[in-house]
Amino acid sequence: MNVKANNHPVLFALMLSAFSALGPFTVDMYLSSLPQMMDYFSTNASMIQMSLTASLLGLGIGQLVAGPLSDVYGRRRPLLIFMVLYLLISMGCAFSPNIGIFIILRFIQGFVASAGLVISRAIVRDRYSGVEMVKFIALLTMISNIAPLISPTAGSAVSTFTSWSGVFIFLGFLGIFLTGMTVWGIKESLPADRRVPGNFMEVLRNYGSLLRDRGFMGYALVNGILFSGVFAYVAGTPFIYQNMYGISPQLFSVLFALNGLGIILGSQFVKRLAGRMDERRIFQIGLQLAFITTAAILIVVLSHGPFFLLFISIFLFAASIGIIGPVSFTLAMESQGHIAGSAAAILGTLQFALGAVTAPLVGIAGENSALPFGVTIFMTSILAVISYLILVKRPALASQ
After folding, report:
1. What are the tens digits of pLDDT across the range 38-52?
2. pTM for this one?
3. Domains in the chain, number
């Protein structure tokens, strides 16, 4: 990254957040068009949600490739190649002749979009450590989560004037913008003498060491499992809000954006407490909030409660994600500077791979039942707590 941007953290974060926002735009921007696309392709809700699953799988698997490539070849060159591919595949999605081809292209689109997420995080680890990394990641999270605020609204606005395919044409132009930013705005942050050997066995050894690191995997699993709850929300709420509560596509986009504010508030909470409170304590607060709010979501679903209670519970769950995300990333990455790309790849892959599991689960009872959504999102918090207790808390107590 150029020196000028690096000397101004907000500008630096804005540049990196443009790439990390590619994931939310890829996943979220067409959400309000899902019912329309179901009619266009003459298919059902599960098949349409499969396109969401495909993009999440692509975002997860792609990071396992893009992360190590950036450790071997530096950050800039792989990022440029993937951004060019992104703009081409997005245009292909716009003109898909059937749902099968669309699902395949959505997987590839997610795969190439993954470079923006994983490489931007690796660049942060190249530049920062400790409390400074916590603060910067919180700032980056706060800025990046403007993307979920505006992407569904932008998608709804685009589809108002064109068909659903216009959303993917817009994403193609976004790819052009990011390609230009890579060419003219991104400077290499990983010097050649800090790169890892470019052979397959070395990549496997790096991944093996990360998977054997209990602390790293503990924080990575908690992060990934809870983020899979976010993807359950992303996949389920377009149908729950619109079909069950009668929310219009336009109002749905606004409500979806408001939940993004919850993530921003959570990350701002982290930014203010970093350096004043131990990061592990902040993490525990976020985990407790996630458990309470997902339990509340399940209770509202089981009791067929009013919409405002469901919305408030989801909003507070989003706030817990804003707390856990920056802190879990920092705690996991603390000792992984030499293989930051691979470490960031595992963190990101777990989010999207687990999200690919939870996203289709919410539709197994059809588009008029919220029960699978409530059970799925509550189970994510239970599994996250179990992972924390076994992999992080218990070893810490044993070492005392």
Report:
1. 888 878 777 887 888
2. 0.75
3. 1
